[in-house]
Design a protein that fits this description.
The longest helix is centred in the middle third of the chain and has 70 residues, at 287-356. The protein is α+β, with helices and mostly antiparallel strands. Helix content is 59%, strand content 12%. The chain has a 5-stranded antiparallel beta sheet. Strands 7-9-10-12-11 form a 5-stranded mixed beta sheet, covered by helices on one side. It has a two-stranded antiparallel sheet with strand order 6-8.
């Protein structure tokens, strides 16, 4: 059998008990079908003591019934034990009553058996009815409902049955009239059951649960006992004129110690009344007066015991409710603490995420104002958190993109959309544009209105710049490809016109020169290149000539257009020199020089120590490149002379031609 929890010392009552008090434990029932010998002996001893106590009470002449506790002992055992064991207790109670008849009452056996049957009928009927209502077996009274059921069936119905049968037997025997015996019998049985049944239940429960009182409780119980004894002595000696005061100590005991206190106080009051009743025979009272006095005292016990039991039941229910409430409160506090801890942990995670996120996060109110801004978003716009919070988000949005906010707001409010994404421009504190990929989620009130928005902004400025560069490069490649193809077309057309006999070889050489220019430009990412690198790049196609070429001039950086024109010119000069000029023998040399004077760029090519030079008989494409194309590309003047000592080529153009004139593309 599973035990219930121990009660707290000062409550002497409820505490945390098992909630199985209203029902039977199957295993417990099975184990008590056959009581052991010790239980039977203890029960028989208690039953005989109850018989002796009832006999000891003052006897009304010719009616040997005053207070009858034995029925209360039997009813308590039937309520505590499973029905399978009832025959043992009923049989032992019958044996005890027959034994008492032999010792004290000396009734004829047939009538004694009739009295036994009358008492057993009342108790068994009450036990069967209470078994259904209380879901017996029970271990204790646990509620006011149980107490009221016991009072109705055990105290009212059971004595009525036994009194009816017993009074009928008395009438048959010829002792007393039915109407004379019945009220005395009923009152004696009711009082006995009311005293004995709760007392036995309480004593057995205390023994099983080992719920021994503390020293403080013993002292308080002793104080109640002394008060009750003194009050009883005073009240009874004053002809019970103040009998209404006697239930007060019982109520006190019930309030402090529940059923233990109430049953103990009732037992003490019963002993006091019994002792007082012994004095009736010495008083000059008639039989009717003694009977009336006995009835009054039994009624006093009945009222006091009933009051005590009801107060004890209410006290137990109240303490049980307090205990359940305390347990529920503990559970609730534990759940609240757990939930609070979880919320605090979630809040810490949110704050850590919000603070350390690698993207900008902001909480925006339903009116479009920034409520919270994280560090990344603040840093993204180069502003302080205090400067941003409390202001509208469109104040930090590029004017041209504010219409996007209005369109998105319409989707949220009118269309019921809860999230969207867009790319728009924000304004940095220094006025620069910050591109952001913005993802927005909407949190709404129960009525559907916007509570706040969660905006996550990823800085995509570099991506946008890369896209702008790619677009620029695409346009530049397209532009340069067209220019290059145009140059190739001119070279092909002019080479075919002037060198039809050696077209492939000549065209190939000029394409190589053009390719050399392209290599240098690509290597410098189509940015400005050094004039020295350009010259060396064109001369490297000719073997062992660099040691005979002397370069002189300041560092000059050429834009792509100028580099392409000068590269082609140097290639033509080097080709002619290798074929006919100073680089065609072993002693010739070339001097290439450049300078910047008075806002103009000057460059010259002079050949020395080569074979004698004569002007060509016809003008070929090389001459066109050296004179017309270079002059046109450089917006300058070109001179070409064929002196006998060597060819001289000179260029003069504005310095502004050397500046990069490539159109710039605005950051989109």
């Amino acid at each position: 059998m599973e035990k219930s929890d121990r009660v707290t010392p000062d409550a002497y009552a409820v505490g945390k008990r098992s909630r199985q008090e209203d029902g039977a434990d199957t295993e417990w029932m099975a184990s008590y079908r056959r009581p052991d010998g010790a239980q039977l002996i203890v029960f028989f001893g208690a039953y005989m003591f109850a018989l002796a106590f009832g006999r000891w009470m003052t006897v009304i002449p010719d009616i040997p019934i005053t207070i009858w506790p034995p029925n209360g002992i039997l009813l308590a055992m039937l309520l505590m034990q499973p029905r399978q064991s009832w025959p043992w207790w009923i049989g032992l109670a019958a044996l005890g009553e027959l034994t008492g008849n032999v010792i004290w009452f000396q009734n004829a056996l047939i009538w004694a058996i009739g009295y036994v049957a009358a008492n057993a009928a009342g108790v068994i009927t009450a036990a069967l009815l209470l078994e259904l209502l209380l879901r017996a077996p029970i271990r204790r009274f646990a509620s006011l409902g149980q107490v009221l059921a016991f009072l109705a069936l055990g105290v009212l119905v059971a004595p009525a049955i036994s009194a009816t049968l017993g009074s009928a037997i008395d009438a048959i025997v010829g002792k007393n009239a039915f109407t004379t015996t019945w009220p005395v019998w009923w009152l004696g049985d009711a009082t006995g059951i009311l005293i004995a049944t709760p007392l036995v239940l309480t004593l057995v429960d205390t023994w099983r649960e080992k719920l021994w009182p503390t020293v403080a409780q013993i002292l308080e119980g002793a104080a109640i006992a002394i008060l009750l004894s003194a009050l009883s002595l005073w009240v009874l000696s004053a002809d019970a004129n103040y009998a209404f005061l006697l239930p007060l100590p019982i109520v006190w005991a019930a309030l402090r110690f529940e059923f233990r206190g109430a049953t103990s106080a009732v037992l003490l009051l019963t002993f006091a009344i019994a002792i007082h009743g012994q004095t009736f025979e010495t008083l000059p009272l008639s039989a009717s007066d003694i009977a009336a006095a006995h009835s009054e005292l039994k009624a006093l016990i009945l009222v006091a015991a009933t009051t005590g039991l009801i107060v004890a039941a209410i006290t137990r229910q109240r303490r049980q409710a307090y205990s359940d409430l305390a347990r529920l409160n503990d559970d609730l506090e534990a759940r609240v603490a757990e939930r609070t801890s979880a919320i605090e942990a979630a809040e810490r995670r949110f704050k850590a995420t919000f603070k350390n996120a690698g993207v900008g996060i902001s909480i925006v109110s339903g009116e479009g104002k920034l409520l919270l801004v994280n560090e990344c978003f603040r840093r993204m716009l180069g502003r302080d958190v205090g400067e941003m919070e409390g202001r509208r988000i469109d104040e930090f949005t590029h004017p041209d993109d504010r219409a996007m906010i209005e369109a998105a707001w319409t989707r949220l409010t009118a269309d019921g959309v809860d999230d969207y994404a867009q790319e728009k421009r924000y304004l940095h504190r220094n006025g620069q544009i910050v591109w952001g990929h913005t993802t927005v989620s909407c949190v709404r009130h129960a009525d559907g209105s916007i509570a706040y928005l969660i905006k996550v902004v990823q800085d995509i400025t570099e991506r946008k710049r890369s896209e702008a560069v790619r677009h620029l490069l695409m346009h530049e490649v397209n532009h340069r490809s067209k220019n290059l193809l145009a140059v190739v077309q001119v070279i092909a057309r002019q080479t075919a016109r002037h060198s039809s006999d050696h077209f492939v070889a000549t065209f190939n050489e000029r394409l190589q020169a053009l390719a050399a220019n392209q290599d240098i430009l690509v290597h410098n990412e189509w940015q400005r290149i050094a004039l020295t690198d350009l010259v060396k790049g064109q001369l490297n196609h000719f073997e062992n000539v660099m040691q005979r070429v002397h370069l002189s001039g300041l560092a000059v950086m050429l834009p792509p257009a100028a580099a392409q024109a000068l590269g082609m010119a140097i290639h033509e000069l080097a080709t002619n020199a290798a074929k006919y000029g100073s680089l065609s023998n072993e002693a010739g040399r070339v001097e290439i020089s450049w300078s910047v004077e008075e806002g103009r760029f000057h460059m010259s090519w002079q050949e020395r120590d080569g074979p004698p030079v004569a002007a060509p008989e016809r003008r070929g494409f090389g001459t066109v490149v050296l004179e017309r194309m270079t002059a046109s590309a450089m917006s300058g003047e070109v001179s070409l002379s064929y002196e006998p000592k060597g060819v001289t080529w000179a260029l003069s153009c504005p310095v502004s031609v050397l500046e990069d004139t490539t159109d710039e593309v605005e950051d989109a």
